[in-house]
Amino acid sequence: MGANDELIEKLVKLEIFSDFDPQIEEHKRLLGKVCQLLEPIKFSAGDVIIQERDEGNSLFILYGGTVQVHKTTPNNEQFAVANLATEHFLWRSCPGRQGYPFRFHLRPY
User: Fold this and answer.
1) Distances from the Cα of 31 to the Cαs of 15, 35, 40, 60, 105, in angstroms?
2) What pLDDT score does 89 carry?
3) Closest CA to 63 of 41, 83, 30
4) Distance (Å, rounded) from C-alpha 90 to C-alpha 50?
5) Which pLDDT score is estimated for 72?
6) Could you give the angle at the alpha carbon of 33 between the alpha carbons of 27 and 38, nearest 5°?
7) What CA–CA distance (Å, rounded) separates 102 from 53?
8) Helix count (H) and strand count (E) of the chain?
9) How far is it, in rounded angstroms, from Cα 55 to Cα 96?
10) Which residues make Cβ contacts (< 8 Å) with residue 32, sequence separation at least 6?
11) Are 43 and 108 in contact (CB under 8 A)?
12) Which residues of 49-70 are buried (b: 16+ CB within 10 A; e: fewer)?
């Protein structure tokens, strides 16, 4: 199994790619193109991946490790609202899009 095959197997476990079947040649070809667009980034424990109210255009796929999602209150206090593990994806909110702003911190397993 090649590096792309391993990554494709992980991608199809994500909801966003779950309709793809890597056994179908066209699906595998398209997922291979997605793999070519991915850029691995390593973060350390406590690093901020997405800052609250950031504008952005990115999709982060959590390949390994865990991420803790923090929300800031109007009193500027932070609290954890979720713990995400491998095979989750994180949208960086798009400019002008309404939603809940979150702050993401990477935590070790």
Assistant:
1) 14, 6, 16, 16, 28
2) 60
3) 41
4) 9
5) 84
6) 125
7) 7
8) 2, 5
9) 8
10) 4, 8
11) no
12) bbeeebeeeeebbbeeebbbbb
**DSSP label at 17?**
G
Per-residue H/E/C for 50-94? CCCCCCCCCEEEECCCEEEEEEECCCCCEEEEEEEECCEEEECCC
Per-residue model confidence as pLDDT tens digits over 25-79: 999 999 999 888 888 888 888 888 887 777 777 777 887 888 888 888 889 888 8
The pLDDT value given to residue 64? 80
CA 79, CA 106: separation in Å to the nearest integer?
14
In the block, tokens 């850029």 appear at 39
Q: Which amino acid is at 66?
A: T
Are 108 and 65 a contacting pair, CB within 8 Å? yes
